[in-house]
Amino acid sequence: MDIKIIAQTIIYGIFSGSIYSLVAVGLQWIFGITKIINIAHGPLVVIGSFLTFWAFSLCHLDPFVAILPVTLVLLLLGLVVYCVIFYPLKNLIGHERVHLSLLLAFGLMIILQNGARLLWSADERALTTALTGASLEFIGVRLPYARLAGLAVALLVIICVHLLLTKTYFGKSVRALIDNPQAARLVGVNINLVHLFSFGIGIALAGSAGTLIAITTSFSPFGGMVWTLKGLIVVVLAGMGNIRGVFLAGLVLGVVEAIGAIVGLGAYREIFGLITFVLVLMFKPEGLFVRGGRAA
Amino acid sequence: MINNRKGFFVTAIIILFLALQPFFVNRNDVINLFIMIFLVIALSSAYNILGGYAGQVNFGYSAFFGIGALVTNLLIKSELPFLGALLISGIAAVLLGFIIGVPCLRLRGPYFAIGTLALAEAVAITVMRLLPGTCYLPPTYMASYSLVSRYYLFLALAAIVVLIVYLISRSKVGLGMMCIRDDEDAAASIGVNIFRHKLMALCISNFLGGLAGGAFAFYHVAYYYDHPFSIEWTVTSMVSVVIGGMGTVTGPIIGSVVFVGLQYLFVHYVGETQALLFGILFIIVVLRWPGGLAPAASRIVKYIDKLSPEHVA
Amino acid sequence: MLEVIKINVYYGDIQAIWDISLTVQGAEIVALIGPNGAGKSTTLNTISGLLSPKSGTIKFNSIEVNKLPSHKIVESGISMVPEGRGIFPTMTVWENIEMGAFLSASRKIKHESAELVENIFPPLRSRRKQLAGTLSGGEQQMLAIGKALMSRPKLLLIDEFSQGLAPILVQSFVKTIEQINKSQKVSILLVEQNVHMALKLANQAYVIEAGYIVEHGGTNTLLADEHIVNVYLGGGARDSGKR
User: In this predicted complex, what is the ipTM?
Assistant: First the structure.
């Protein structure tokens, strides 16, 4: 096989992988802290895409600039959603918590999908910006500018997340809470507050992923579930609760899928991803990129 | 809950009442509504075995409903008698359970939910790619189609599933499942064989779900092959069980009636915004009655009981 | 300083401790001893706010704390080293120490506090960048206690620190705890299964059995008490003096 085709494939895998990472990082943050499996995450990403669309068509804002207000709006939305819908669950544990949080997330999904349909119609959309269409040629490989910018933005967001987690006390309280909830309470971490803001941040990250998706590919009101599944796969590959492993895990998924496509699996490449996902879940539930030991 | 003798009488009367309905009701849409309710009762009661009694959240449940429908359809197209096909599809669902459910059984809590979701989605996508068209009832069946006989089929199915759930809830096996649900480690330490109980719950749940799928294939004249594999069926079962009352026999029944009834009302009377409003109502109901309506209902029944003459001192 | 007055604590519908009362005076070391499952950890967890008593009061420096959430209790000056150490395994030693000073008041002086802690437990100084989960048992225990000291508590609750530690190490911790109590003027409430060690370390002790306090007194008296000697100290005539 032509080396250029392989290189092209891998590059495209990295491009789509970076989007997967951004979708997954919010989901991972929420799950790691609150143990809520936010199956409405995909639809929230789509809302981010549609808000970007509005910013673009109504306010003539360049999508790359729009990412900031969209992220902020979704942060607020996340905080509200948590207070109204998920906060009542805080004292539940076990299968009750899993059942109820799944159902509530599903209800949220219905509201978001149909709300989006009412506001923007069921059509599939994509945004064309100044960068669309043009690409850079680099040693025989095509690098579309829009995709490159998308990758750069995704990297930037992930770096911000990393800095938030390692350099701020809030970020450290998040990591502490994931590591050992009891010990976190004993050093003075306010669990309810961390849950609330983690949820908000998780949704804000979904929003930023939505903006990138609007720029690089297409979106529609009912296309959210696909992103949720991709997000879940990346979450598992990274290791449940491992927020910082998500970037690499997303790239892995992207590249694996891209390779699967050219190797001939074509339409079945999603299944390939799904089965890998379950295998990892079963044999290495800590994930592929886990660090650290355990308490002796 | 209601004491046993009264319970039996009430159940017998209700079943008799329902069995006589086709003689008095002429409208097909009402009969179809009943059928839908019976189907959801059967499906959600079967889900309840693994979800409500054993406490494992099988978020890929629709795969088993779907395989039941698929196998029945393929078999009756190959001239197999319907009841035989139905049984085989139940077994097929159990076999599918071994392939995708059992590996996930080593996962706990939300991880089991995620694992089963992914595998079920994989199955759904495979079916969608391999069989993208419409699934039709074979011509011989269409020619001799009788809505009333299907009414009785679904009534019988619902009654059988509820009976099985009732028997499990009163058995030692059911007790073991409930122990696992309440505290898996504690159950293990008193000698409950965790894997065996979870496996049994999974198999029974899947078998009955497969039967429901087979009945579905017998009833619907045309649908997309991957429709019964859709996550909506999992959610329908889950919602009915949760709002009715998890781990109770009557819970799924109440929940199914409420859920299907509400959907019917919304679709017919609300119009464009129906799905959106339904979602909002859904969330309100789940938050307001997280324990389910059945426990609330039984409190009302106990209260009425207390008001009766023998109790007034 | 700490007054626990007749607390009753339940796990769901099951009662674990009945009318437990105890006091810890300033600069004292008090031991809470008893068999497994007697309710020692439950008591400590209730004082630190992880659990809530159904009835009864807990006063710390005359302020009622039993209704406060755990983060507020840490603010009031009580810090706990839980059973199992309570460290953050995927975070570094330094990050663990930092988290000990999570409260805003402690953050400002965290470098001085860290200096203090590393003087008490020198091995931590050279392991700042190491992941806490890869430390040995003894080092993790040092980290756990050091972390708890970062919030400059007036009262330190320690739950079974000797668990899993070699006897030589336990002795070294005993000396360190005495030092912390004397030099930092920190009161200590200690839950221990190693009764002999606990009674030698503490000034006062409470004995809890099946959820009730059955004995209380100065450790000298208790070391000579027949019941204690028979049930907890192997029945033999050991040296019953302090140090």
Answer: 0.86
